Amino acid sequence: DGREYVLTYVDERYYNDVDEWRDPGDELPPMRLTIPRRDYILDSEEVEDPDEYYTFLEQPPVERVQRLYSIDEVKRSARVRDIARRIDLDTLNFDFGSATISDTEVQKLDGVASAMEKLLKKNPAETFLIEGHTDAVGTPEANLALSDRRAEAVAEALTNAFGIPAENLTTQGYGEEYLKVNTPGPNRENRRVAIRRITSLVAPVASNSEQ
Fold it and tell me: For the segment 163-211, what is each residue's pLDDT rounded down to a tens digit?
């Protein structure tokens, strides 16, 4: 129709400086979980059969998706992200202040990588969010950067070691904002990475064809 549109990109490090940001989660009612916790958050330490990863990831969101979200909106809104189930990769061990994953640690991703591969065979447009987290030791700025590197390290391992296409993975670090164990001290459980299948949040048409 002759109108011009200007698309802008904001570096994630400067999200808090964008005055126009409105959390789409504010449009949603409070989360009311009606399923057992293990059906909502899968701790990798509790996984006995690798097929559990696929069974978990193929499940639909825990509530009806109201609208299509951008990937940036999903990354930035905790309420929107919480619609998607989460895998906590507790078996991955990060040293204090480190984002390095050893070859031994990489092999611990085999089960979740196999699940991703199966889902991608059914729908090549699947999108997975890799979340990085830290403990509360250090400055918020340093922890945010470290959590970004942890998420990126896992995404790179999934691509390089298991062949998961990089275009199906998106990463975001949250620093010390979402502690799993509420402690100001060093804590291994807080130095973690989590994975969510966010396809239904960013591409409802694709997800509806699966369900």
Answer: 999 999 999 999 999 999 899 999 999 999 999 999 999 974 443 334 4
Longest dimension (CA), the chain: 58
- Give the predicted TM-score (pTM) of the model: 0.86
Which residues, at least 6 apart from 19, have a Cβ–Cβ distance to it below 8 Å? none
Is 118 a member of any domain?
yes
Whether 27 is in a domain gets the answer yes
* Domain membership flag for residue 3: no
Give the C-alpha separation, 148 to 22, whole Å.
Answer: 23
pLDDT in tens, 112-127: 999 999 999 999 999 9
Alpha carbon separation from 3 to 6, 8, 160 (Å, rounded): 10, 16, 42
For residue 125, the domain's CATH number is 3.30.1330.60
Domain residues for the domain of 71 are 12-210
Number of structural domains in the chain? 1
Whether residue 6 is contained in a domain is answered as: no
